[in-house]
Amino acid sequence: MKSFENILPKLVIAPGFLLGFTFIYGFMIWNGILSVTNSRMLPNYSDFVGLEQYVRLWDMDRWYVALKNLGIFTVLYVGVSMLLGMVLAIFLDQKIRFEGVLRTIYLYPMALSFIVTGTAWKWILNPSLGLEKLMHDLGWASFSFDWLVQSDTAIYCIVIAGVWQSAGFAMALFLAGLRGIDDSIIKAAQIDGASLPRIYWRIILPVLRPVVFSTILVLSHLSIKAFDLVMALTAGGPGYATDVPATFMFTMSFTRGQIGLGAASATMMLATVAAIVVPYLYSELRSKPHER
Amino acid sequence: MAAPLHIAGIRKVFGKGDKAVEVLKRINIDVAPGEFLILVGPSGCGKSTLLNIIAGLEEPTEGELRINGKNVIGMAPAQRDIAMVFQSYALYPTMSVADNIGFALEMRKVPKDVRTKRIHEVAAMLQIEHLLDRRPAQLSGGQRQRVAMGRALARDPQLFLFDEPLSNLDAKLRVEMRAEIKRLHLVSGITTVYVTHDQIEAMTLGSRIAVMKDGILQQIGTPDEIYRLPANTYVAGFIGSPTMNFITGTASSTGATSLFSFEGGSLQLPSPVQGKVTLGQRPEHIHLSDDASWRGQVTLVEPTGADTYVVVKTGVGLITVRTPPSTQVKVGDTVGMTVSSHHNNWFDAQSSLRLS
Amino acid sequence: MNAKNLSRLAVYSVLLIAAFFFLVPLYVMLVTSLKDGAQIRAGNLLSLPTSLNVDAWALAWSSACTGVDCRGLKPFFWNSVSMAVPAVLISTTIGAINGYVLSMWKFRGSDLLFGFMLFGVFMPFQVVLLPMSQVLGFLGLSSSITGLVMVHSLAGMAGTTLFFRNYYTAIPRELVNAARMDGAGFWRIFYRIVIPMSTPILMVTLIWQFTNIWNDFLFGVAFSGADSKPITVGLNNMANTTSSVKNYNVDMAAAIIAGLPTMLVYVLAGQYFVKGLTAGAVKG
Lengths: 292, 356, 284
What we know:
heterotrimer, A: 292 residues, mainly alpha, C: 284 residues, MetI-like fold, 2 domains, 74% helix, 0% strand
């Protein structure tokens, strides 16, 4: 009877975990296998080519463009979102009236699909009828804003849309962190004569380091997945000027009939994410003492 | 429905290899039907582990466990017909008091009308009938405790287990609930094993006390036996407040009595013991006496209302003496002490075991 | 007194400007959707429509073109519904059961299993696209809503397991022990005790999953066919058609339609989301 009680929980989660692990790890391996074959439109497991697809990958200008864009996008997206989020959080923490309304306003973009965001901003940043025309109508005749269609500036439009979507989320994380700080520490600092900006800079912000860390983690993760936003705003264009690894992979695999190459790029994406996440997960799970 | 409990050779080891910790080392206890056994000891002595093993929430590494003659090792908790009251009460937060009390009956498919009747019976016994529709979050600590007991009582089990149920209550409530538990035991007559770290609870509630330390049963006996005839210095020092005084010295027998010499004094006591021994003497069996030869300086005077405890600094350390509240002794005074020739507890200085 | 008021003013100004930044796109979308083509060209982003024109909305819903199809967003809206609802329910249920076992019925290696599952939360889904499309093809489910439901359920499992497991670890072990002694078994404890205590985390998980699945584009565009496209794919197609005339008003109306469900969920239920995140298990 006791042994049944012992087996049942394991039986119950077995199917879910089996499916889940197949999905995660099984597919990971399968993708890896595809990346060492010369698959084109369809998988071709008999044509084993070793690391040739990876060599091809790192030989492509387009891949380097994608990586560069990812770098630019991630740094700016994470950096600006965090900065804006932090500032908004600090200001909101000052016992503001309408705090609830403001919070709702800052956060609602997170509820939208990146496609919706991308479609809206595509219109706003429209070279002839969007922001440029607005500025002209407001009197600033020499304003020009065709960033969206220029190869070297289009990526920044994606950053703007991305920040608009996610800064509120960074704000929410920081606000929660600020709210979690013990009031008495701040009171002690005030008695000690520190001014409010000083208090924030020397006492509060250092305490928020873990929040900064987890915000960077979540936002970086979102940026690596930023497939939807790019597709909606620029579809990777003009040309492939705003390609990112995610769009690169998709185009190669589903549009260009280069499954092997696409799989290789996916593996590269996985490796990047794993390099950051695995040590983090390992340290998290190790440091937690075993609960009963 | 009282059942005897037979614990034989129970061992529990946690961990493996060189990280293995033996939490229980061959425990043997026989609890008679209807008996109220207390398991008492400091944190980490293994008493809660033993209770969990009896309950079936944990399995022993080795040993035998019989309830009413039946071997229950390997049996799920629900099948052992045991009810347990937990330290945190563990009431089901989303259910009403009535549903909490009746839950076990519901699990056993007892018909609704029988269940309701029993719930009201138990609630009346515990004077919580007016709380039956409330949720646990709306109750005070004492009320929650009663509901937890009601949940156990409703079962009418073979065995009651209590895991430090009074630790979360304030002092006054604790005294009240102690009396309540004793009364309920009298009424129900169910065999009970009760875990506590509080020696006062142990002394007042139990028909027998089992003192544990480091996974070993130090002594098992009635409160009187434990108090008057402790089996070793640990038990002697654990039970009784203020604690027993211990004096280590050398005794040399001179016929019917011995000369017991120690640092700063000596006593002539009617006990035929020899060699390096420790004398244990309770504060109530030491008296202040102006013309005694054993002297020391008073460092603390603690009046408790009914008695006054005087702490005297001597060559063998601090000695606590109980005196009537009318005493005029002050801190700094030099006093003499006589030791009663009855109630001497002699222990081997090396092994700490009682010498007969 | 003045310095304090000045700084208050500065704070409010910044917050207000930020509010504008976040609200203006919504305003622009709404306003554009109510203009006709001429008004769009004549005015600018912020100008109000000279006459209210709801044609764009009707077009967006029932007759705008998304590639070769010209049926508006309506079919895709319902595709998303039939995809999201089952997927949310399935992934939440599996997550709850997994979380329950991993926190209250731990066994040797259960923490390790959890750790491995956790990676699924962070993994880039690009890496499962190709194998998944093979599997769906093999099962005859490619380009079907059922296939999408399957993918989303599998992909969501890691996140839902994480939510429930972390929430359930806060429930005291003694509660489970008391129930075991009362005679409740594995399922009874789950059904009678744990689930009634799960309302906060249930809200969090349902909202989170619905938002993610409704808003998804990657799986939608990779695994759907003409009749199973979710609304995100439909919207993207509509806004990116290379057909002759660009109907910005229709695009904006379509974008609002696509974004409305999750926005509504956020506005109406957002407080439960926040409450759920900060709630622990009930004490007592």
